Amino acid sequence: MSKGILSGIRVLDLSRVLTGPWATQILGDFGADVIKVERPGVGDDLREQGARLKDSQGHETNERSTFLSTNRAKRSITIDIAKPAGQELIRQLVAQCDVLVENFKGGDLVRYGLDQASLRAINPRLIYCSITGFGQTGPYSQMPGYDLIFQAMGGVMALTGAPEGQPGAGPQRAGYPISDLTSGFYATIGILAALHHRDTVSGVGQYIDLSLLDAQVAATSTMSMSYLVAGQLPVRVGLGSQLTAPYGDFDCADGKIMIAVGNDKQFVQLCHVLGRPDMALDERFTTTSLRVQHKEILLPIVASILAQQSIGHWMPLMRKAVVPSAPIYDFKQVFEDPQIKHRELVKTIEHPLAGSMSVVGNPLNFSETPVEYKRAPPLLGQHTDEILREVLGMDGPEIAQLAEEKVTTS
Fold first, then answer.
1. CATH number of the domain that residue 283 is part of
2. What string of DSSP letters covers 19-55?
3. pLDDT of 1 over the 50 cut
């Protein structure tokens, strides 16, 4: 049994694709026993997305990278919830669980008797978290949605991309599913808060209604508050900043680096690196607000100096002077960086087909309850028999009967 910070907590995961599985993977990393319910013969939609994992002999398997990225630390059971016997299995599992996470369209689970009111009546201590695109209420509540929709409606695209008037200007999406994963973080936070309230205040669970649109709008508040406070609409600035300067990408002799000067002290340090300490005394550049006001003058000066030398020349000087800066990496370079290696962010985990596989580790480092990497992303239905025996106390003939009726598959 895990000795993680959530050991003793059991999670029934009825979610699929990204947001719910991302949240339940975090809970699993923390030591919760996460039971992932999947459709017999099909499984999570993400089982069909991404690069194929190779087995221990180097042959491609049916396991895909996107699924692998969000489903470690779980056990997989296949249950056909469209069948009454499958619905009954869910009810029996709910009686043994602390948390349920689902992302069916609003109202879909009512027809199966698996809605929050029905299941919390069985287990009043249950934390039931529903994740939908637009929430359980409102004019769009029945609409489906994916990350791209919420980046558009949540304001992300209004902030992302080249400024108007520049080549390639126009709204852009973030390069990874930011709305899905942000919502997953909010789900995790909400579940942990509800567990704390149950166990220290009320003794009972509660229902969490989480919308991806709500979560994305909330996450952009550092930018959108300018509109609420002063009626000012943030605009796209590419890799630059509306708030500080120099801040953005600069060409060196052999590629680009990013520089992110956030205060006056850092600007002074940058000026020394560039061999232009006099710029720190220029009355146009002495404060952040002045540098932003005069950035059309400042940025070309900085750019012209940086272009004279290579990235390898500038980066050691920047780091020695503690100037926030970085090369622009692809993922091969990410995982070769000495800082990433030192932090041991890539973990090795045993896998039933691959023998072992690398995963991106959880970034939280607990001093007393470190994250353990003992459970690989499961094969479809890998733990069906195990869960039916261990959690529900079923015997061989009962398990075989469910398989014969195609309620479950092993």
1. 3.30.1540.10
2. HHHHHHHHHHHTT-EEEEEE-TTT--GGGGSSPEEE-
3. no
Beta strands 207-211 and 74-78, pairing class: unpaired
Measure the CA–CA gap between 20 and 24, rounded to whole angstroms. Answer: 6
Q: How many domains would you assign to the chain?
A: 2
Q: Which two tokens stand for residue 358?
A: 């690398």
Would you call 318 helix, strand, or coil by DSSP? helix
- Quick one: average pLDDT of 309-314? 97
Structure tokens at 128: 């039931």
Q: Based on the fold, state whether residues 58 and 161 are members of the same structural domain.
A: yes
The pLDDT tens digits of the residues spanning 168-183 come to 888 999 999 999 999 9
Whether 295 and 388 share a structural domain: no
Region 103-121: mean pLDDT is: 95
4 located within any domain: no
Three-state DSSP at 360 gives strand
Give residue 71's domain range.
Answer: 10-219+359-404
Residue 100 has pLDDT above 60, yes or no: yes
pTM over the 0.70 mark = yes
Q: What is the pLDDT of residue 164?
A: 86
- Cα 394 from Cα 403, distance rounded (Å): 13
Please state, in angstroms and rounded to a whole number, the distance separating the CA atoms of residues 321 and 361. Answer: 30
Q: Does pLDDT of 8 surpass 80?
A: yes
Catalytic residue among 13, 80, 98, 180: 180
Do 78 and 194 belong to one domain?
A: yes
Q: What H or E segment, with its residue span, contains residue 179?
A: helix 178-197
Tens-place pLDDT, residues 230-262: 999 988 888 888 889 999 999 999 999 999 999
What residue has token string 């622009």?
A: 328
* Helices marked H in 263-346: 264-273, 288-293, 295-306, 311-320, 331-336, 338-342
Backbone angles phi, psi at 225, to 5 degrees: -60, -25
pLDDT band for position 2 (50/70/90)?
low
Q: Is the dihedral of CA 174, 180, 185, 189 positive or negative?
A: positive
Q: Which of 184, 264, 244 is nearest to 216 (CA)?
A: 184
Active site residue 33: no
Report the Cα–Cα distance between both ends of the chain, in Å, rounded. 23
Whole-angstrom CA distances from 70 to 24, 52, 118 are 8, 15, 28
CA distances from residue 185 to 24, 181, 205 in whole angstroms, order as listed: 10, 6, 20
